Amino acid sequence: MHKEKNNKKMLLFITHAGMTAALYTVLTLTIAAFGLANGAVQIRISEALTVLPYFTPAAVPGLFVGCVLSNILIGAPIWDVIFGSLATLIGAVGTYFLGKYVNKWLSSVPPILANTLIIPFVLKYAYGAEDALPFLMLTVGIGEIISCGVLGSLLLGALEPIKRRIFTNRK
Predict the structure, then answer these.
(1) CATH code of the domain containing 27
(2) Residue 94's Cα: distance from chain center in Å?
């Protein structure tokens, strides 16, 4: 009986992670068609999903895998695949701990900070962006505030009332 319960939990974890990765990838590819998935001005609507670790720890690897896949599929340089995906992973881990132990409404702060601090260096050195780092931090930061802060908070508010039906592995 105990083994069956653990298998069910693992299956649910993998399902949540896979769905998160797939959704992140689809949203990124959609916004990439409009030229907003990477560059000095970017609004990755998929980054709104970075609030999901508040609901389930499975979203942490899901977001990371989704970001890796997205960056590969949009043809990003290897340094963006590596460091852009690490920025999302750092943000997701921060969201999990901040949402779980501090305040759910601060869940979007870690991905905003991680991407604002890391992505400008990726843009400068992987893409050869001529802009100054403070300008890139400003533009990336604004995009992250829109996608993580605004859209992510809206998503958090929409999922909060139904979280027990969707994310049953979170206490």
Answers:
(1) 1.10.1760
(2) 11
Distance (Å, whole) CA 8 – CA 10:
5
pLDDT in tens, 24-43: 999 999 998 888 777 667 78
Q: Give domain status of residue 48, yes or no.
A: yes
**Distances 123 to 5, 21, 35, 108, 111 between C-alpha atoms, Å:** 45, 23, 15, 22, 17
Domain that holds residue 99: 2-166
Residue type, 63: L
Residue 171 domain-assigned (yes or no): no
Total-model pTM: 0.91
Enclosing H/E stretch for 168: none
For residues 158 and 163, give the distance between their C-alpha atoms in angstroms, rounded to a whole number. Answer: 9
Q: How many domains does the chain have?
A: 1
How many helices and strands, by DSSP H and E, does the chain display? 8, 0
- Token duo for residue 89: 């992973």
Q: How many other CB atoms are found less than 10 A from the CB of residue 90?
A: 18
- Domain assignment present for residue 142? The answer is yes
Task: For residue 92, give the nearest of 21, 11, 167, 166 by alpha carbon.
Answer: 21
Q: Is residue 152 part of a domain?
A: yes
